[in-house]
Known about the structure:
The structure is a homodimer. Chain A is mainly alpha-helical. Helix content of chain A is 55%, strand content 6%. Chain A contains 25 helices and 7 strands. Chain A starts with a helix and ends with a strand. Strand 5 of chain A pairs parallel with strand 2 of chain B, so a sheet runs across the interface. Chains A, B: This is Amino acid permease.
Amino acid sequence: MAGRQERDGDGATPPEHPTITFSPSAEFPPLNETELAALHQVGRRWRTDLRDQPPRDARLPLDPSLEQYRHRPAPSRFHRLGRIEMFRTEQHGQLTATGSTSTTGTRLGRATGRVRRALLGPPLASAAVLQERMRKLVALPVLSSDLLSSVAYGPEAMLAILVLAGSGALGLSLPIAAALVVLMITVGASYRQTVYAYPHGAGSYLVASDSLGPRFGLTAAAGLILDYVLTVSVSVAAGLQAITSALPALTPFTVPLGLLVIAALLAGNLRGVRAAGKIFATPTYLFIAAILLLFAVGVVRAAERGFSPVPPPTVGAVEGLGLLVVLRAFASGATSMTGIEAVSNAVPVFKPVEWRQARTTLTWMIALLVVLFAGLTILIHLNGLVPRADETLLSQLAHRTFPHGPWYALIQATTAMVLLLAANTAFNDLPRLLFFMARDGYAPRRFLHLGDRLALSNGLVALAGAAALVFVAFGGYTQSLIPLYAVGVFLAFTLSQSGMVMHWRHHRERGWRRRAALNAFGALLSALVLVTAAITKFVAGAWVAVLAVPLLVLFCRHIRSHYDAMRQALALPPAVAEAHQSSGQGGGRARAPEPDTGQAAPGTAGGPDWQVAPGTAGGPDSAEGSEEARPNQVRETSGPGDLRVDLTPGEVRHLVVVPVARLNLAALRALAYATSLGQPTFAVHLSPEQEEADRFRRQWETWGDHLRLETIISPYRTVIGPLAQYVEALHSVRPEVTLTVVVPEIVVRHLWHHLLHTRTELRLRRALRDVPGVVITSVPVHLPE
Amino acid sequence: MAGRQERDGDGATPPEHPTITFSPSAEFPPLNETELAALHQVGRRWRTDLRDQPPRDARLPLDPSLEQYRHRPAPSRFHRLGRIEMFRTEQHGQLTATGSTSTTGTRLGRATGRVRRALLGPPLASAAVLQERMRKLVALPVLSSDLLSSVAYGPEAMLAILVLAGSGALGLSLPIAAALVVLMITVGASYRQTVYAYPHGAGSYLVASDSLGPRFGLTAAAGLILDYVLTVSVSVAAGLQAITSALPALTPFTVPLGLLVIAALLAGNLRGVRAAGKIFATPTYLFIAAILLLFAVGVVRAAERGFSPVPPPTVGAVEGLGLLVVLRAFASGATSMTGIEAVSNAVPVFKPVEWRQARTTLTWMIALLVVLFAGLTILIHLNGLVPRADETLLSQLAHRTFPHGPWYALIQATTAMVLLLAANTAFNDLPRLLFFMARDGYAPRRFLHLGDRLALSNGLVALAGAAALVFVAFGGYTQSLIPLYAVGVFLAFTLSQSGMVMHWRHHRERGWRRRAALNAFGALLSALVLVTAAITKFVAGAWVAVLAVPLLVLFCRHIRSHYDAMRQALALPPAVAEAHQSSGQGGGRARAPEPDTGQAAPGTAGGPDWQVAPGTAGGPDSAEGSEEARPNQVRETSGPGDLRVDLTPGEVRHLVVVPVARLNLAALRALAYATSLGQPTFAVHLSPEQEEADRFRRQWETWGDHLRLETIISPYRTVIGPLAQYVEALHSVRPEVTLTVVVPEIVVRHLWHHLLHTRTELRLRRALRDVPGVVITSVPVHLPE
Lengths: 785, 785
């Protein structure tokens, strides 16, 4: 093996590509040059705004680094000491969270944390990423269970088509199997080249995106997503069928058992890569050993008969033998190849040198596949077996080969095991695929998150959820879905290998023609299978795949466009006019694309147009009203919501509104909090009747009338509507003012206590969510019981 | 009738009681003297705190009364003009919301508002309360459908027990019916007295609470709640059964049809009292007319036979005839009286003079009940009818009386209608009962809310929900629940009339002995029925009531204790030491009950113990650290959550924390917002790895390092846990500081877009909800699409 590696790689390391790892920092993409420049520029405006402020840290009432509090007891909510111990200090006062901070402090959070830890083990630090890599001997079973298990149904699927043309057609199985072996070796060799060319992750999505463009990459990804979800459901169903046919009493529990298996697979994978490898290695090796034993004995038996095939029982032809039947048999047999892609996506989880280890593993997998597939097909032919509805071919073969003894049971048991574990390959692969897609913005960003066991937890959970849904929807009888996923798999193969052809053409390294030719041949064969499968099985279910793939692609592109819009909306304005810095007033507006129209010099346009009520001294401050004359224009141009203002403290103009229902402790705390911010503040009271409004105003005067009080009569007794629309009206007359609504939030101990409270805070927040420029501040009030 | 009224009331108005009306202000109970005094005192401390501030309204950037903006177009979110028109000005700048503000401005809110208006009609202003009162002719059918409809099954229930002792025992029906008539007249007369004594609402709950104490009142209320919920389910089921026996094709749709009927009843009642009256008046009058017609013809037929009873068919005895059977028959017949209570709770919805109108209506109801019940029993006896499983007695009687023609159908149809409408009495009564209970704190306060059609909407919805639940749970076959509610009803009767006895004893007006004796007799008879029903029907289902009533009482008391605890927690400290005013520093703590221990003079206890990092000028302000030496003590004594501080602006000590993940527009807006508040502010960044932390710090420095930045490494890659616990740690080292966490909240257009965002704001809010003294401020960022 080593020699071949050297030859392929010409002794050199593979070509350079941008490093792609499952780094936890993937969630925090760095800023580019333009963004940094914009940031710097905004920062200069801040300097102007903060000119007259005291030094940065002067007024902080505590040391945010917690340095001073670390070595003495600090009180906690639960009267325990040592809350600070949850953070360690590394170099230069750097805080580091300890494992105990993974859970939130709520009772539910802590309970969940305990269960989680018991099931999945303690959290793993990011530094452990390398330790979580796989050796070849672990990777082989983890990544190959899908591929190898499919030989349990691949030959049968092929023969089941051939037998439609009568038992005479069964003889064709050998040439078709030979063609399939060629296909396997071609595709395998192709993928070996792919791993070499894309050493940081060589899945169809990556390769097709890179070489053919994102549209093709997404198409391949959609095919694979479909394939993986179906693989899990179908494998679990197949494994359970093997069990329930041995223990029929379990049949009524198929659905709960299946969900249990899916949950177990999920838990195993959430534990992390190495742990999953340990759990899953033995059954796969046992299966390989069992099948090889079957061969050995079968060959010996056949040798005793002089290798003359037993004639199969006569079966009448249902259809004529034609090219179509042969093609269908070929396409059906090709389902044995599902799972071949597993290694290529998984390159980054191998121990270094990753690509080398991955390639060797791939070679071994292909070799095992060819041996098992060809061996089984030949033995079936020699024994003259015919597909039957009530017993699988593998079971028939095992029965024939081992009429007595425990061997039959061993083969059936390991087959069931490996079929169940085949689902595990999808668990290994799909989260990685989603990670790559999320990195490009085609899948939700949460798929970038490395869970606390360094697994891509969100992808695992999504896969388990989708597979469970399919499993339940089909009541655990998912065999009819098998034709569906040939389409997805071979779509990915075809695109990946076409991509490789383009790759070689583009790079034109030494020997590129040979490599391109190999990939082109692989692409051609894959495309042949794809077209055959899509056409011949269209009615049987392939139409779902033909429909679902473009829909998934559209969906992914929609996600991407949402993220693009968000990034654009959240981008800092690229080039702010330098002139702004000299103003130094902060009343100006700094919408970057139109540096002049957006900035009326403060106090110019007409001056204040609201005169204060007589009796109160002083006028409104000078900066106000600058936008008043053309509010509509401002509204029209503010395309991306309210993102046009307020990038520096000087630009924020405050007005604090405190809705007050009753003058109790909660209301006074909210009023005190709001007033203590030192910004213009007033209170608003909503009253169902004039009498109540008057009564409230008298209470307000008893208190001292320290703030302006606005009472609104709500004759229809609704609360949220008028309040929200009042705030909206305030916003609409002065869109440039940032309204802060300060609401006391009643925090209850028990969930059902929510029934006893009107939850005004929550409902107001919801109603005001759409209004730009309205900040909601919840002042929590904790009820004792 | 008028003459009797005069005699009962002795021509005078009834005794004075505190006015109880369904006023919309009930949701805003006034402050008592102690609270006002405390409010005044807190207000004086505010004056000290605000001494150096500019005048109250001086800095407001706009006129909160919107006065100035009313008569010119203002822009709105939807580019429509005239948002301000949603508020009208009454006298002295009083804002009044118009009907269009009932709905919130969101798309969903507006759509819901339209549907609601179409179904329920436009909102009614509070001033329309009087117009929504009922005349007698409307009140009679609305309030009596339950009572009168029960004659459709009451006599049958009685005979069904008697026939168990053989057909010979059926002759006892006449004396038992006579006893029941006595019971009806007694209870009716008792309630007439109750309405007179409690002219503002005379339900069992109110009477028993007032005279016997809240525990008895709650017991009566629990019985009635049970009764009302069952009444709705059972009536709807009975009505539907009458329909489905005529149109068997509808039988499989019993459950959806029942839900539809309940929904229709709910909608009709949500439209309001008068509207409901209009809908429900005709069927009840038709039913009365139909039954009276049946009597007339039946009596004529019997006269033709010379009033000699037809001998009933011989039925064998199942049990011996004893006192028990007679008592059970009596108790079963008494179910005819369910619904008699309806008027007494509803006194306030009559037109003035309320109690007079209510009493007349009650008299008419009782008279009709006696006539219908006695008449039916006699006719059944004369016709020698026996209860049969397949046909109701009423139906048999109608068949016998009208062998031909449409009359039989008319009687069946009106019976079905009135049975369906019987549920409506519960819809009229239960929300009022819940209103009274909520006013006393024994039910959720939302039952106080008058909906926009002046109905007690929340009570209506709760009743419909509970009844629908029972209906669905029993699959629409709820007849077995009938024995259940005799217990609830007669429990309420007994308590209410015992309460009246105590009432007369207490007040000793002229003629009180006579009145007390009548009520005592009623109480005795009711108690007799109650005990009989509870014992004889214990196994048949009465045990549920026997169990449910105490549980409901416990539940109500729990609600009350929650509200009590809340009121106590939210009450202003009653007597603040005057000494506090002279301090004027604001650093002091003012937990009133311990005026000295709570107030350390600022700056005394040890002084600042955190030295600012070298290189930054200035120290922490002088007031800090005063609580540092004894944080545990402070924590221990702060019983009711965090309600001990921050009642005046000077007491609030701020620290603003801004979690920043990435330096984009959203983060800078949050930073600008936080900084512009002018309070001590710093930022915190959570990083999965040291490299990312360093990179972020470089970006921070590019921006200008305007705020202190604390980076926390989260090696387990969790976000919410470490952030929440960091904030908690900050809180624990300085519990007296109010932490404001400023988080940008991404607002998306479509709900499913939430999947694409991590919703840190929401999760952080949840995690921090339990930490006292932490205020969360959401700065919304609206995404364009």
